[in-house]
Amino acid sequence: MRRKQAYFVSLLLLMCILAGCSSRPENVVESNKLPDIYPDYVGVTIPVGIAPLDFSMSDDGFDVVDVEVKGSRGGELHANGSYADFGIDDWHQLLETNRGGSLSVTVIARKDGQWTRFRPFDIHVSADELGEWGITYRRIAPSYEIYSRMGLFQRDLSNFDESPMLMNTQSPGACLNCHAANATNPEQYVFHVRGEHGATVVHRNGKDELLKARNDSLGGSMVYPYWHPGGRYCAFSTNSTSQMFHTAGPKRIEVYDSASDVFVYDTETHQILSDTLTMRKYWAENTPVFSPDGRWLYYITARRQVYPTDFDKELYSLCRVGFDAATGQLSQQVDTLIKAAAVEQGGVGSATWPRPSYDGRFLMYTRTNYGYFSVWHPEADLWLLDLQTLQTRPMDEVNSARAESLHAWSTNSRWFLFTSRRDDGLYTRVYFAHIGADGKASKPFMLPQRNPKRYYGELMYSYNTTDFTSKPVDIHARTMGYLIESPNRTPTEMKKMERND
After folding, report:
1. Read out DSSP for 24-87?
2. What is the pLDDT of residues 469-489, one digit of tens each?
3. What is the pTM of this model?
C-alpha cells in the first residue's frame, strides 16, 4: 500500500511539474509587431522533410510561448512551453500536406505575467525537394595555435540526430581537414589529415587508400579537394599557409599563402598531373573545382605578393580552363571570368571558393576585399555568376554584415547551404536557402536544433567545410584511426606537362 501511495504521490508531483512548464494564455494583449524569435524563421522557405523549426523568443524575459501553426492546405500544430518544441512526425505530416503552400504561425508569449499575441508570420513550404539525406561538416573550436578536440560529423536533416564520422581522438594530435564527397555521394570521398600521422585519405570503390601526406616533388600537401564527376580524377591545391593577427579593427586573424598551386590527381595511376598553366612561378592558384559535366576546371589565381607586409594586395581572379578526362590534360586556353581589382580603386576585390551548381546554370562564389580565406573576413559576401550570360551580382537576399563563406549546392540545384558568423560574430553556423531557376534566393534559415537557443548558446565549436550528403556516410572510426596511425602510405608521383610561361 505504501509503495502504491508513493507511486501516486510521485505521479502527482510529475503532473504538477509538467503543468508548471506550460501555461495557457489569459488576458492577452494584441500587438501588431512580428515576434522577435530565435532563430529567425519569419518568412523563410523550407523543404518538405526538414527537421522541426523549434524556436524561442529572443528576449529571455519571455518565460512561456504558446504557438499555433496552421497550414494553408490543412493541418495544424500546437506547442506550449519555454520554447516552441514541435513533434517530429506531426511536423513532417504538416509539411507534406502543405507542399507548395505555406504555414501561418501565431505566437503568444508571456513576459512579467503579461501575455502578448504577435502578428502571425508565414513559413513557405517549397514544392522543390531537398533531395539530400543530410549534411557533413567539420566541427572545430575557433582557436589559432592548437587543434583541440575536433571531428568530422554527419547530421540527419529530417531530425536532430548527429553522429561523428571520425574524431581526432582516434589519432591524437591530428588535424582533420576538408571532407569532400563526389556530388554528395558518400561512397566516394577524400579528406586530409595533418600532424605526425599525416595522410590524404581516398575512399573509392569500397576501399580506403592513404596517400603520403607530402610529395617532395610537389613541395606540399594535397588540400581543398574537388572530385571530377567521372570519379577517376580529383582536383587539389597545395598551399604554403601562414597566419598573423590584427592589432586593431574588426578582423582578428589573417590567413594567407606564400605559395599555392592547382593540380589534378589520377586515382588509378597515383599520378599528380601537374601543369605549368596552373602552377605558375609568380602566381598563386587555389580552390579548384570541376564543372558538373567535367569539361571545365574552375580555380582562382592571384599575383604573389611580398608577405606578410603586402597581404592586403593579394587579389584573386576567377578563371576556368578546359579539361579532357580521356587524357587527364588541361586545354591551352584560360578564361578569366571575374577579374580582380582593388576595392579602394573602385574594383571588385577578390574572388574565392567557386562552386558551380550541378545543373551547370550558375556558379556561386565569395567576394572579399582581398585574399581568399573568407571565414575571417567580415566583408565576405556570396555572389552569383550566371554561366550563360556571365553576368554576376551580389546575393543581397542572403548576405549579412558578417562573413558568409563555404557554400555548397544540393544536387538538384534548388537549395544551397553556407556558413555565416551573423549569429554572434564569433562562431560560424550553417544556413540554408532555396534558389529558383531565375537565380533568386529565399531568406536563409539556420540549421534546426531542438531547443536552439540553448544548443547554440552552449556550443563552443564552429561548423566548417559543410556539404550535403545523399545518404549516411559509412565509415568505421576505429578502423580509420588504426589506418591513420599505421605507417602504411601509398606514394604518389609527378607527371609534368610543360608549357611556355
Report:
1. ---SPEE--SPP-EES--TT-EE-TTPPP--BEESSTTEEEEEEEEEETTS-EEEEEESSB---
2. 999 999 988 889 889 889 999
3. 0.92
